[in-house]
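Student:
Attend to each token:
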Amino acid sequence: MMADLYQAQRAMRQMRKQALQRGVVAILDVGSSKTACLVLRFDGSTPSGEDGEIGSLAGQSGFRVVGAATTRSRGVQFGEITAMQETERAIRTAVQAAQKMANVRVDHVIASFSGARPRSYGLDAQIETNGQTVSEQDIARVLAACEVPEYGAGREVLHAQPVNFALDHRSGLSDPRGQIGQSLTVDMHMLTVEAAAIQNLVHCVKRCDLELAGIASSAYVAGISAMVEDEQELGAACVDMGGGSTGVSIFMKKHMIYADSVRMGGDHVTGDISMGLGVPMATAERIKTFYGGVHATGIDDRDMIEIGGETGDWELDRRTVSRAELIGIMRPRVEEILEEVRARLDAAGFEYLPSQQIVLTGGASQIPGLDLLASRILGQQVRLGRPLRVHGLPQAVTGPAFASAVGLALFAAHPQDEWWDFEMPVDSYPARSLRRAVRWFRENW
């Protein structure tokens, strides 16, 4: 099974190369509340940054956004596809609108999704190089020597990235090729998700007559676009608060070393408002967007919000609610989401990293006062993140809600090396259980 997956991932990487040579690729971020599509045109210049180095993150140049569209998602819950036809329709709508704006036909898409119960593993391996120059084959050999844990039936590896190499006693190497040493060690981060989530996404994309040229975790790509380089280098967490789920990713030395997700997001806050005030979801969403918050002050008791109803009964439809009451409904749910995020960070051993910056992004991160509440609950330096500026990105898609879409564009242009990028002897995959990723990272670096 591992060999099949390996081949499938390699085939996708090959397709990505072809798409980049043709010069156009679509980016598809399939979320619970919206599906966003960006069409990228590549001008053939290599991205800036350490080109060709193992694992280097996306440079800024190399592409521009020529089309962008977003549509309401249907059929996606907790970041996972639950109704195929509805999701297929949303993907088709978004891709067609973005193609129309770009005035170009797209065949290849690179997609990201959240949820799917991600699990992180830290793997390591060592091989002897006997004083020879480290070659591409040696990299493949050391990666193949990593023992893959028993990650359970019904799960697939989504990412498998070398995050650190050591040659003899020199650790922290990002690319040991061409250097001379006796023994080569690698540390790897592997992320598995529920296989059904990947299969459903692949199926929906194929039904839209598109080829899948890559797939990534939203938590990972949101971190790529919302964190600055220093944060990715020194250790930071990205909390991507979407509609149906909240992604958590931890970066160190410019690599993701841990990812998880909380099965709650902004839609759950909207649901609480809808229940608490007895209004439809659409009205609750509007009230949340215009008047929402998590910190009530004295003035909020007097600040009244009109809740228009649709019953036709004039008395009933003229209800008002104070902003303090609205905050009283929203705050417990937001606190619950942040407490869950905190539990994930604690499990990962985040407090042991040299820097503990937390970057909040995603549509639900825009609730006023959320950053203050987050710094109280998460007990760290917290800032609100916006995605990096990329060439040609329309103003409408520059907000925090588009962190994953923009990050996916950067990932498409310049992906970090993964296991399947090296010609590997895929015969044996012994298994043993491994500790969680960050703890291993702390002890080994």
